[in-house]
Amino acid sequence: MSVYLHDIPMTEAQRRIREALQEAGLWQVLGIETLPLSEALVGRVTAEPVWARLSSPHYHSAAMDGFALRAEDTDGAMPTAPVTLLVGSHAAYVDTGDVLPEWANAVVPIENVEALDQNGRPADDPRHPYMIRLRAALPPWTHVRPMGEDIVATQLVLPAGHVLRPVDLGAIAACGYTDIAVTRKPRVAILPTGDELVPIGTPVKPGDIIEFNSLVLAAQVASWGGEPIRYPITPDDENLILERVREAAQESDLILLNAGSSAGSEDYSARVIERLGELIFHGVAVRPGHPVIFGMIGRPGESAGAKVPILGVPGYPVSAALTGEIFVEPLIALWTGRPATQPEEVEAVLTRKITSPAGDEDYVRVVIGEVGGRTVAAPLARGAGVITSLVRADGILVIPSGIQGIEAGEKVRVRLYTSSRVLNRTIFAIGSHDMSLDLLAQFLAERGLRLVSANVGSLGGLIALRRGEAHLAGSHLLDPETGVYNLRYVRQYLPNEAVMIVRWVGREQGLIVRPGNPKGIKGLEDLVRSDVMFVNRQRGAGTRVLLDYHLGRLGINSEAIRGYQQEEYTHLAVAAAVASGRADCGLGVTAAAKALGLDFVPLFQEAYDLIIPCKYLEDERIKPVFDLMHEPRFRQAVAQLPGYDVGQMGIVVQGC
Ligand SMILES: Nc1nc2c(c(=O)[nH]1)N[C@H]1C(S)=C(S)[C@@H](COP(=O)(O)OP(=O)(O)OC[C@H]3O[C@@H](n4cnc5c(N)ncnc54)[C@H](O)[C@@H]3O)O[C@H]1N2
Ligand code: MOO
């Protein structure tokens, strides 16, 4: 039977991995080594319990600088009836940590005694007086650290399977050890493959992909307690890949063969594994990451039984990173003898409907906020190539394989990447994205706050506010009848919610044209020229509304515009259409033209407002947003963005 790209359920994949490793004698800790405590052992796992050899302290020790004495000798001491003790026979000076004299059982701090000379006058050297006078009695063992206060010899200090932290090393040394038995770090070979890959730092041309999966996988392996070995890029050549894998099998405990896992003409991973050993599965019903491969190959130069597990890690960066989390982390946990990581989970309300492929376990990246007493989760981009979806993610929502989707408003469980404490310091914005919000996020971070934004367009933002799922929404919806921004839409979509509309920025919209503006395009009037090809935004986009509004005012019939029907979904996609020559111009923001080195014909200033429910105006998280609107340093930073105007920032369009 061919196992080639046939998805099996996750539990079946886990079972096959376990059985293959059990058979190879690898379903256990890989090895134990005894290392000096002076080596960097933080993150290593104890291989055996640590039983104290010594007590700590291992003698009765003074806990204060002062005088050791017998507590009984101070009985009856009072402010009006002091007790005097002779130094030498009844009291002895000690520093903190000194051995307590055999005969003593308490220490009085030096500042609590009168140090006197033979004549009862203050002594010249208070540490070596003739006698001391006390005006309070001391109970026995006052200011003494008795032997074993910290650790009693024979006591369990740390169990086996414990991940060492800096403080643990101190306790181990204190209880009499110089070295410790820890589990061996699994060596994980990481082999990036692909003709299109170029090393980090190489100037790129179209088709080149900066090789970074090996960087991510290596960092994951190191952070989980393994020892990564990164190999150079191997081109898409079956024999070269085979040679590299063979080489890696000699020096590693696990091989991660990256990319070439799917069904493309140059996807060799499965074949290479078959040639070197046994292909155990190819395809698991998880998204992203479904073409993952697992096999066992022989270890060259060793007995026939010696095997090395190999994972074919899918090439798409999100798939690669998640494959690390799902498959590699538990193996490193097993081999190092620690429990697998159990992420903290929260229950959250989903802000947007998501669909999921039937039969697959689906890993949806989400951002999370605490809004109006509820925890809400907004899904991020789903593409397996969108590494920033993992960078931005606060957690992962796993949709089980039997479920084909989840409706907005349903409760879901999310595995957290971000600590739940941080979520309380998060402002959750849903709506139209604007670059100035990225700056706002930076300035808020200086104040210990996090701004998380989910970009769903202006209208989507108003709907999120209506459902109580955001603290604020950015919006730039023009009313074609009045030429006023946002007001009418807010009344229409939020009839029962008191909200403030505050002007945030003015943004320049204009025509994105090729460098040097070869067609001499000056305004919307030029769109009807027979030699001009236009590219449009999709219906419902704020920019499309703006275009139609101005065409109407100028009396231009959209049917006369060549390319009016060509629709793109983002500013950057419009710019890309112009850059490639598919269109001569399109309406968009300055920044999109700049990003692709294009020219820009400024036409209109549009308003981008923040819509904030009145009930959040007093929220500790929202106040700094208003402070920043008036802070010169912030206004200046926004004004420096190309095509931005902050002249009206902070003006209240509709108050509470
Ligand atoms: N006919 C099918 N095609 C694909 C399937 C399928 O089931 N049938 N699955 C898709 C899925 S899902 C994934 S995931 C990918 C897996 O692809 P491969 O493992 O074969 O990897 P490539 O095609 O070589 O690369 C995919 C993508 O990732 C980039 N990449 C690869 N390595 C690196 C690296 N080290 N650093 C950064 N980026 C990397 C590569 O350039 C590609 O853009 O297959 C789908 N196709
Ligand atoms: O399922 Mo593929 O693994 O990322 O998109």
Please tell me about this protein's structure:
Belongs to the MoeA family. Its cofactor is Mg(2+). One of its GO terms (molecular function) is molybdopterin molybdotransferase activity. The protein is α+β, with helices and mostly antiparallel strands and 656 residues long. It folds into 5 domains: 10-28 and 186-336, MoaB/Mog-like domain (Molybdenum Cofactor Biosythetic Enzyme, Chain A), CATH 3.40.980; 32-57 and 151-183, Molybdopterin biosynthesis moea protein, domain 2; 61-145, Molybdopterin biosynthesis moea protein, domain 3 (Molybdopterin biosynthesis moeA protein, domain 3), CATH 2.170.190.11; 344-416, MoeA, C-terminal, domain IV (Beta-clip); 473-654, Periplasmic binding protein-like II (D-Maltodextrin-Binding Protein, domain 2, 3-Layer(aba) Sandwich). 24% of the residues lie in helices and 28% in strands. Strands 31, 32, 33, 34, 35, 36, 37 and 38 form an 8-stranded mixed β-sheet that branches. It has a 6-stranded mixed β-sheet with strand order 16-13-17-21-20-18, sandwiched between helices. It has a 5-stranded mixed β-barrel with strand order 22-25-24-26-28. Molybdate ion binds at residues 287-291, 314, 316, 319, 384.
Mean pLDDT: 94
Helix content: 10-25%
Total individual domains: 5
Calculate the terminal CA-CA distance, rounded to whole Å: 69 Å
Q: What's the Cα radius of gyration?
A: 35 Å
- Count of helical segments? 16
The biggest beta sheet reads: 8 strands, mixed
Ligand list: ligand LQZAQKY5, molybdate ion
The CATH superfamily title of the largest domain: Periplasmic binding protein-like II
Give the overall shape. Answer: flat
Structural class: alpha+beta
Number of DSSP-assigned strands: 38
Low-pLDDT residue spans: none
Strand content: 25-35%
Q: Please name the CATH architecture of the largest domain.
A: 3-Layer(aba) Sandwich
CATH topology of the largest domain: D-Maltodextrin-Binding Protein, domain 2
- CATH top level assignment of the largest domain: Alpha Beta
